[in-house]
Amino acid sequence: MTAPDTRVAPPYAGGELDQLNAFLDFLRATIARKSEGLSEADAHRSVLPSPLMTVAGLLSHLRWVEAYWFDTALAGNPDRAPYSKEHPDGEFEIAAELTLDQLLADYAEQCARSREIIAGLALDDTVPFRGDQRLNPRWVLLHMIEETGRHAGHLDVIRELLDGATGE
């Protein structure tokens, strides 16, 4: 991770939507930063007990988590994710078939789509969710900050075990 850090730090003051988006974008950029510059072998190599917990697997997982919460849950589009009852870890499994560059591009494209969806909504808007429940964009943004931050921590550990890179 010797490339210049191009992440934009979230503002210390601002509106709620702007700050939530900024924190999520910072974490998205952190995911990309921690994933870039690895060999294909290292991107797909498991250094933790779970064979699914690879840089490639986490990139694929985060791409499909973004797709579910923004495209499916908020925008109402069909769920296209590669997981099913028979293959509950399908998004991790397909990562083995994709290059690191493709995974990074897919993640970036999905994040851009997620930004488009959230830009058309107010935090207090609600959409039908899982039967008779309602879901708002605030919940999705908060959940995605938690989800992306948690996996950024996983990438910290994985990257250090792969090549000794630490920090940021």
Task: List the defining traits of the structure above.
single chain, 168 residues, mainly alpha
The computed structural class is mainly alpha
Beta-sheet strand percentage?
under 5%
Number of strands: 2
Evaluate the radius of gyration: 16 Å
When the domains are counted, the total is 1
What low-confidence regions span 5 or more consecutive residues with pLDDT below 50?
none
CATH class category name: Mainly Alpha
Largest sheet: 2 strands, antiparallel
CATH superfamily annotation = dinb family like domain
Q: Roughly what is the average pLDDT, rounded to an integer?
A: 96
Q: In one word, what is the shape?
A: globular
Strand line-up in the sheet with most strands: 1-2
At CATH level 3, the topology is: Four Helix Bundle (Hemerythrin (Met), subunit A)
Order of helices and strands: HHHHHEEH
In DSSP terms (H or I, runs of 4 or more residues), the helix count works out at 6
Helix share bin: 55-70%
Identify the CATH architecture: Up-down Bundle
How many angstroms does the end-to-end distance come to? 9 Å
